[in-house]
From TrEMBL:
EC numbers on record: 2.3.1.-
Record-linked InterPro entries: Acyl_CoA_acyltransferase (IPR016181), GNAT_dom (IPR000182)
Top-level taxon in the UniProt lineage: Bacteria
PROSITE patterns linked to this entry: GNAT (PS51186)
GO terms, molecular function: acyltransferase activity
Name of the featured protein: GNAT family N-acetyltransferase
SUPFAM superfamilies: Acyl-CoA N-acyltransferases (Nat) (SSF55729)
Keyword entries, A-Z: Acyltransferase, Transferase
Annotated organism of origin: Micromonospora zamorensis
């Protein structure tokens, strides 16, 4: 897409655009209920930005933020898998700090969707990672996201309900470094 610029940010660099990140999140999730509140998201973002290896990629067009993606490697004592539904493959939730990169958010403003921005953000961040797999949580009812993720090599493993208040149940998706999923349950 012409004029699209992607930029990697560390947590320190992201502090300068924090309000823009939150504003975009709130616009994308407008009307989504208490789980998508500004307060909860600011707490989540603050906690995630403290994770070792946290990385953000922003997408701008003519200097305006139109989307972003961020994530971090899962540490050995991660709480990421808390609330996971069984059964899961043996050892699936075991982490060592280098096995799994967790994609926490991939957001594009509605007026900029279906122009390849989400794919560009995804490929830029996921393609730069050294972990053997990447995981994310996707709403089962978000058909557009589910369709995109499947076409990008993601597969569903199970479901998970985070320990956040009012959290919905999400599908747990996984993509191996080679771009294929494992043990898909549908």
């Amino acid at each position: 897409m012409e004029g699209l610029q992607l930029r990697h940010h560390s947590a320190d660099e992201a502090d300068g655009v924090l309000d823009q990140l939150v504003g975009l999140y709130l616009e994308v999730h407008a009307g989504g209920g208490e789980f998508y509140s500004e307060d909860r998201y600011r707490r989540q973002l603050s906690m995630h930005m403290q994770r070792v290896g946290w990385e953000l990629v922003t997408a701008t067009v003519d200097g305006a933020l139109v989307g972003y993606i961020y994530g971090f490697p899962l540490p050995p004592q991660t709480r990421w898998w808390d609330g996971i539904h069984q059964p899961v493959p043996p050892g699936f939730t075991e982490e060592d700090g280098t096995r799994t990169f967790a994609l926490s958010e991939l957001l594009v403003l509605s007026g900029w969707r279906r122009q390849g921005i989400a794919r560009a953000l995804h490929d830029d961040l996921v393609g730069s990672r050294t972990e053997s797999r990447t995981t994310l949580l996707a709403r089962p009812d978000n058909v557009a996201a589910q369709t995109a993720y499947r076409s990008w090599g993601w597969g569903k493993i199970t479901k998970l309900q985070p320990n956040w208040e009012d959290a919905p149940i999400f599908d747990v998706l996984v993509r191996n470094a080679a771009g294929s999923h494992t043990n898909s349950s549908g």
